[in-house]
Amino acid sequence: MSWFQRLREGLTRTRQVLAPATQQAEPAPVDQPRPLRRSLEELELALVAADVGTSATAEIMSSLERSHQPLQEALKEALMEQLEPDRMRASLRKLGFKPQVARTLVEPKGQVMMVVGVNGVGKTTTIAKLAHYYQQAGRRVLLAACDTFRAAAREQLALWAGRAEADMVSGEPGADPAALAFDAVQAARSRGRDLVIIDTAGRLHTKFNLMEEMKKVQRVIAKAQAGEPKEVWLVLDATTGQNGLAQARAFHEALQLTGVVVTKLDGTAKGGIVVSIVRELKLPIKFIGVGEGLEDLRPFDAAEFVEALLG
Ligand code: GDP
Fold first, then answer.
1. Do domains 3-95 and 112-302 have the same CATH topology?
2. Residue 205 Cα, ligand 1 centroid: separation in angstroms?
């Protein structure tokens, strides 16, 4: 199955929420605004139900009311505007420019990437998939198992590191995660590895402790290598909906995230969370996950996502 088919299948539940409201509507007459028909009201409810968020939904609705295109096409365009406020790219696409996502590498800035997120969101498996992705792209990856709070995390990461053929640095349970991150950055330098992916704890005794520890890891990485980590990515479970957005806000405030990876889009009807993240947090979505396999995590492309969702 191609990635697009997987993505389309993964987004089935969200599509089922949106599709009924888009398919019956007629285009509006050219000389009149689109009247507020039942289907538009249904669509508004569907967008909110899919977790697109109230402010994005309001903007989408007002552009749909002005549009003379069939509703489904107008919705695609409105979603693109939300997901890619950079109009240049959107208008290039309208002229038929289609990026080859699978062949475009999502270049991480710098050499150290810190990955954060609460337990259970799919952080460990996402890190493994990222390691696999970058190894395949010719990067030499070193994983740092800095979740020393959770005993099983190191073993799980080691297993995945083996599969992805990446190097790994780990410490004893309870070891200082920041010291370990420091060692990992140095080890990468001496072993000639060009990308360090740092796994971090997803739960501590309190949320305050967790954020303080994350900040410390971030500071210590900067001591090991000036200017790093240039990437701090949050892994977010799409099934947690608006609650996930609140998590994202807390991590963003503490760490100034540079990107988000959204997992488990296949398990939810709330795939619109992707729009909320871009719109509310102004953060780019780097990768999305639609399954448990190594190949089920891919770079995010707005046009492809919208097409898979509504096409
Ligand atoms: P962590 O606690 O955040 O490190 O979470 P794990 O990486 O251990 O993953 C928790 C569960 O989520 C595992 O069973 C993963 O296979 C599953 N998982 C991760 N990503 C996805 C995804 O995109 N879709 C689905 N359906 N499951 C996923």
1. no
2. 22
